[in-house]
């Protein structure tokens, strides 16, 4: 099996990390808008509203809201078949619970999707990507409250109806399982010291599962052509050694990370998760009919982010820690690491694809993968990001092998941050992923000028040859 001629090559961004215009045209505050900047050593701070004198990188970001036509044109120049982005819920419903949507927000996404189609680019849209109205946090306590299920359904009804025929690929919640490791971004949860953390997280997750199932059913009803997936954070987990306790620790970690996709793809809670919650004294409150909804509203495909594999140990270990996308593990001595400590493992992507497909028997879609690195603009204006080309080349080889040798159906590939944007984890700009450089620094200085990197032309050749030419741009 080779890559299909309609394989969806493209790139990925998120509204809160690129759009800016955080209060323009009626947009409300989002959970991203109250996060200050940070860096590799300083954590981002969550503030109660906007504080004077603080820098919030999402407020301007890379100003995609005003520059989307220029950026889409650059994506088209690379040959994108698709563009993964998200809709900012707080542009459509500024506080989250209004009776009617914001017309200016509706209009912006019509214009954005029309611009994509002008170049033959298929939008791939995440409905909630680390962005929900801050008003829902203040008024309801975010996804703690069952009422958010109906508010999310109202939001979905509006966007499915408005963009019918313009968007057919959707995902409900970005990295929904990240709530287990960092509950603010995916669910707006700021857990108080007196609260039972596990209880709060899994009750909120249940509300999101029900909301996702309702969205799937509603999306299919409004447009049978819609394909609606989940989006899960995942990477294969290795045991540090062949000791049985290490093997168990690795398996336990994978089970935890896969539990959310189990609910969305299989339509029921896995037994291991239920037993784990029972042992922890967690009781999930369900409404009548929830289990039926989960069974009926399973997703059409598995969207996932893959940046690195992980290692777990079940015994004391002297190995250091390897940081990653939200999660952390034991450092793997056989793998190199990025400047931010994320370990590079292309084979791990192939193994991840095997595991996900064998578990769910649904098409896969790699919707995030990439290398965050510091880029240097040379005196002649060039940006020679061979390290990024090397990273992406090896990961493309890995997923091609999974398709061609392992027979795994793969819908597409959208490398993360196809244009430089604000890092969700650190709030930095210097941690760059894109094929397109944006002149902006960690303090918010810069012209916002766009500039093609060396990887731009390389990826253009990859797409033009449907992944056959991975060495079209040679090192200088």
UniProtKB/TrEMBL annotation:
Give the highest taxon in the source lineage: Bacteria
Q: Name one GO molecular function term.
A: beta-glucosidase activity
- UniProt keyword Signal present: no
Query: Which residues carry out catalysis?
Result: 368
Q: What GO cellular component entries does it have?
A: cytosol
Q: Which GO terms describe its biological process?
A: carbohydrate catabolic process
Q: Does the keyword Transmembrane helix apply?
A: no
Q: Which controlled-vocabulary keywords does the entry list?
A: Glycosidase, Hydrolase
Tell me which InterPro entries the record gives: GH (IPR017853), GH_1_N_CS (IPR033132), Glyco_hydro_1 (IPR001360), Glyco_hydro_1_AS (IPR018120)
Under NCBIfam families, the record lists: PRK09589.1, PRK09593.1, PRK09852.1
Family under the similarity heading:
Belongs to the glycosyl hydrolase 1 family.
Q: What is this protein called?
A: Beta-glucosidase
């Amino acid at each position: 099996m080779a890559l299909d001629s309609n394989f969806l090559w493209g790139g990925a961004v998120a509204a809160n990390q690129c759009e800016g215009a955080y209060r323009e045209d009626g947009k409300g505050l989002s959970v991203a808008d109250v996060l200050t900047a940070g860096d590799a050593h300083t954590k981002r701070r969550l503030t109660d509203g906007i504080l004077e004198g603080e820098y919030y990188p999402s407020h301007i970001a890379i100003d995609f809201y005003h520059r989307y036509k220029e950026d889409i044109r650059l994506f088209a120049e690379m040959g994108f078949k698709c563009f993964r982005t998200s809709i900012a819920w707080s542009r459509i419903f500024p506080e989250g619970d209004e009776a009617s949507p914001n017309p200016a927000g509706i209009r912006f996404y019509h214009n954005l999707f029309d611009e994509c189609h002008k170049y033959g680019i298929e939008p791939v849209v995440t409905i909630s990507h680390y962005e929900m109205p801050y008003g829902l946090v203040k008024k309801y306590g975010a996804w703690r409250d069952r009422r958010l299920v109906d508010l999310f359904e109202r939001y979905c009804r509006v966007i499915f109806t408005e963009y019918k025929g313009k968007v057919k690929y959707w995902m409900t919640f970005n990295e929904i399982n990240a709530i287990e490791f960092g509950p603010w971004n995916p669910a707006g949860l700021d857990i108080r010291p007196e609260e039972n953390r596990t209880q709060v997280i899994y009750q909120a997750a249940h509300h999101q599962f029900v909301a996702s199932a309702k969205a799937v059913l509603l999306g299919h009803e409004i447009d049978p052509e819609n394909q609606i997936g989940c989006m899960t954070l995942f990477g294969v987990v290795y045991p540090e050694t062949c000791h049985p306790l290490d093997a168990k620790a690795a398996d336990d970690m994978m089970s935890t990370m896969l539990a959310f996709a189990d609910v969305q793809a299989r339509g029921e809670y896995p037994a291991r998760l239920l037993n784990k919650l029972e042992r922890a004294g967690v009781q999930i409150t369900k409404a009548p009919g929830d289990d039926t909804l989960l069974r009926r509203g399973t997703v059409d495909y598995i969207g996932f982010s893959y940046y690195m594999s992980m290692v777990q140990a079940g015994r004391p270990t002297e190995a250091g820690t390897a940081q990653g996308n939200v999660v952390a593990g034991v450092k793997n001595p056989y793998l190199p690491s990025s400047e931010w400590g994320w370990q590079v493992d292309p084979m791990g992507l192939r193994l991840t694809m095997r595991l996900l497909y064998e578990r769910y028997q649904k098409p896969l879609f790699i919707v995030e993968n990439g290398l965050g690195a510091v880029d240097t603009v040379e005196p002649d204006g060039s940006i020679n990001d061979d390290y990024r080309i090397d990273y992406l080349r090896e990961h493309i080889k890995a997923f091609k092998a999974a398709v061609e040798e392992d027979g795994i159906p793969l819908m597409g590939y959208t490398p993360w941050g196809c244009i430089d944007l604000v890092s969700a984890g650190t709030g930095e700009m210097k941690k760059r992923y894109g094929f397109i450089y944006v002149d902006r620094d960690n303090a918010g200085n810069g012209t916002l000028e766009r500039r093609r990197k060396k990887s731009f032309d390389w990826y253009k050749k990859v797409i033009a040859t449907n992944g056959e030419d991975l060495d079209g741009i040679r090192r200088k």
